[in-house]
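Task 17 of the worksheet. Students: predict the tertiary structure of the chain below and write it out as structure tokens. Keep your answer in the requested format; marks are given for formatting as well as content.
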Amino acid sequence: MTENTFKSKNVDINYFSNNVDNKTAILFIHGWQGGWEVWKTLIDAFSVYKIYAVDLPGHNKSGHLKNYDINTYTSPILEFAESLKEELVIVGHSLGASIGLQISSKLGSKITHQLLEDPPWFSEEKGKIINNELSDELINNQVIKYQNGSNFFTEHKPRWRTVLDAIYSYQIFDPEIFKTNPFWGAIRASLAFHHDIKIWQNAGNNNDWAWHDAPELAKNVDAKTYLVGGNNKKGGIMLDAIASKVSSNIGDCEIYRFDTGHNVRFEKPKEYFNLLAKLIGS
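Model answer:
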């Protein structure tokens, strides 16, 4: 698997690319705490296309930033997308889906299609988050999740010397994942070993770090778009109210819901594959 470095203005971005020559490329953008390797199954499945899969700033093998929010995450990935010669299909998960919307709102017809999987659209109003108006259960759960992660990794990550240290420690943080899918738990822990500790500290101290005005951004999107969400009662974080507004502001947009948690593509891989194939082939 060939990895490369893109030097943006502020940070080096690690990315994978294959050797396929195609006028259409798929740009995979992982979510918070992920890495480009989480897309490997889909990379293999769609290898007829030119493939790019990035590590976000502060994640895996990419460089670190002083501060992390939706704009600082997006800026170097936008630079990378602008540098590519092909027309792009964006496939993003969670934070990567939000970054994908930011990019497609700026690059016009260069982005022909996009599949945005369960972006963190759990609040319609920024003030509701930063003012701690946590009457909404979904917002409350997300903020607690960010704060718990910040506290845990601030305490434990400085002690890690090897990936094995991270794997043993991660079982304290998320014991459930090691019961249901120990392989994926080990991958998450291995990625966490390489991540910048500030990605958790920033999320814990800055409750609006992932917020953006998605409906307003959508007004500038030309790409055919699929919004794919999980079940809000099972861990999905894309609200219907926001997704509907985003969809109404994009000329060609469809919404798909699955009875899954936050990671639709892992829980419904066949359905996810079929959706992406349908989108690209349309």
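Marker's comment: The chain has a mean pLDDT of 95. The CA atoms of residues 89 and 125 lie 29 Å apart.
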